[in-house]
Design goal:
This protein has 14 helices and two strands; from the N terminus they run ααααααααααααββαα. The longest helix is centred in the middle third of the chain and has 21 residues, at 106-126. Helix 6 (81-98) packs antiparallel against helix 7, helix 7 runs antiparallel to helix 8 and helix 8 packs antiparallel against helix 9 (154-167). Strand 1 (202-203) and strand 2 (206-207) form a beta hairpin. It is mainly α.
Length: 238
């Protein structure tokens, strides 16, 4: 109603809503794989393009809306059949993980995590180089490594992390499991090198230093400790 009354004043305010709405549609589409959200997104894009086309294209506001228009047009246009299949693998792996009860014995947890990783490996044969699948696989390599640490299978835990990093060497979240594994194996110098290299890198909005310290706290809460933990904490807090 306000746009009809004064389009020059209120068009941007209306247009500003659409990128947020499109972002929500993208999340729903990726989670549910329901094509209706893609169709709805294209209708929203038409409305956004109409709003933008009636604005002064030289203004910053118009440039912002054009950027959002181009971005989401590309996002929803590229969401083809491969993406649907890839997302289906992602959703199924997450569902399989949710079925692992916390009360399950370690051997059964490890077996089920290996099964999830194998499924993602098969998916990567079909979709080689998929960054989404590679990252998802590393998430579960990390969970498997942690279960192995808790069960004192330290050489296995190290092998798991290194195997994951072979196919996805830039996945720092997986790499962050490595220094504590090395510490527990008595490889302090190798561990410290990684700790110092990564401690100031960001991990989901916080430095890896915090992640490392949280890991040490979690292990000690489980009754797992090492004489070098105190020195590691001191180095991380410098």
């Amino acid at each position: 109603d306000l746009v009809a009354y004064n389009p020059q004043r209120y068009s941007f305010d209306l247009g500003f809503v659409y990128p947020n709405l499109l972002s929500s549609k993208e999340k729903l589409l990726r989670k549910s794989l329901d094509i209706k959200y893609q169709d709805e997104a294209f209708e929203i894009l038409k409305d956004l393009e109409e709003i933008w086309s009636e604005m002064d294209s030289t203004t910053r506001r118009a440039e912002y809306l054009k950027g959002a228009l181009d971005h989401f047009t590309l996002v929803f246009s590229e969401f083809g059949s491969d993406e649907f299949f890839i997302r289906d693998y992602i959703n199924k792996s997450n569902e399989s993980y949710r079925m692992i009860s916390p009360d399950l014995d370690t051997e059964s947890k490890i077996k089920r995590l290996n099964s999830i990783i194998d499924t993602l490996s098969n998916a990567l044969i079909k979709f080689p180089g998929s960054r989404t699948l590679l990252d998802q696989q590393c998430v579960y390599y990390g969970k498997l490594a942690w279960e192995s640490i808790l069960d004192n299978r330290l050489s296995n835990a190290e092998m798991i992390v290194r195997n994951g990093l072979k196919s996805n060497p830039s996945h720092n979240s997986l790499k962050s499991y490595l220094p504590v594994i090395l510490t527990l194996q008595g490889k302090k110098e190798d561990a410290i090198k990684i700790y110092m290299e990564m401690k100031d890198m960001m991990d989901s909005g916080k430095p890896f230093k915090d992640t490392f310290l949280d890991d040490l706290d979690s292990l000690e809460a489980e009754g797992i400790t090492h004489p070098d933990f105190a020195e590691i904490r001191k180095l991380l807090n410098q």
